[in-house]
Design brief:
Layout lengths: L5 E6 L6 H14 L6 E6 L2 H10 L5 E5 L16 H4 L5 E4 L2 H5 L5 H13 L3 E6 L3 H5 L3 H13 L4 H4 L3 E4 L13 H19 L1 H6 L1 E5 L7 H5 L6 E4 L6 H11 L9
Parallel strand pairs: 1-2, 1-8, 2-3, 3-4, 4-5, 5-6, 6-7, 7-8
Helix pairs in contact: 1-2, 1-12, 5-7, 7-9
The protein binds phosphoenolpyruvate.
The site of phosphoenolpyruvate has 14 residues, from β8.
Amino acid sequence: MARDKKLIIGNWKMNLNMHEASLYVHQLAKLVKNHRDVEVVLAPTALTLQSLSLQINYRQFKLAAQNFYWRDMGAYTGEISAAQLNGIVQYGLVGHSERRHVFNESDKDIRAKVQAAIRNNLRPVLCIGETAFERSEGETAAVLHDQLIGGLANVTSEELKEVVIAYEPVWAIGSGKNALPDDVSQAVRAIRSQIKHLYGAKSAEEIQVLYGGSVTADSAKAYLDLPDVDGLLVGGASLDAHAFSEIVKKAHKGSSLANK
Ligand code: PEP
């Protein structure tokens, strides 16, 4: 997907049951218009993916898996594979901070998932970001560097075209403390510079990089205006269809009212 299109992903985490999810999508479909310059992606719980895939109009919304296992099939009780998600979702979150910190996912798991997503035609959204402690120690750029290398090992430059990077400082997620736009800008520039180092200038220019961390309808525009930022990964504020639709509207350039 070219960078002239903003990508807005709503991560519902472990919220909304089947009935609530269906109602939400029904509401959001009425609130959000199709725009060529915005791609709207919903990441509901795995339980609701299949029914939502039948309900949504894929030209209006796409779906993302919040998580999946890296093997394609086999004796892995309780897991869902990217191969099984193929045809239902178009994206898969990988390395979200809650997966890294609550479920102890390692860079090894994360790069296997990036590979599994690519192998099964899902666009991996590789989430990276520093903790508050790492930031206070001045280690942000080093952490981003390590997580990029860790997640992208084995990804070719052709495959990289399918990868989305989400810069999500851990301290900003679900905390109400969103990062300052200048800090986001600096981090995203560090990410592009690392991609340039690994894959060359063209890849660094073309890769989509999102910001995530306590984004609301009020703060969204400040990030969407940053030239290096190509969209948002929204958690809490995506749980309310109206608030999420306001964020989506801000990503659409043609809407002068929404952009105010
Ligand atoms: C997220 O879940 O990726 C996220 C950014 O959550 P929140 O917007 O609630 O901080």
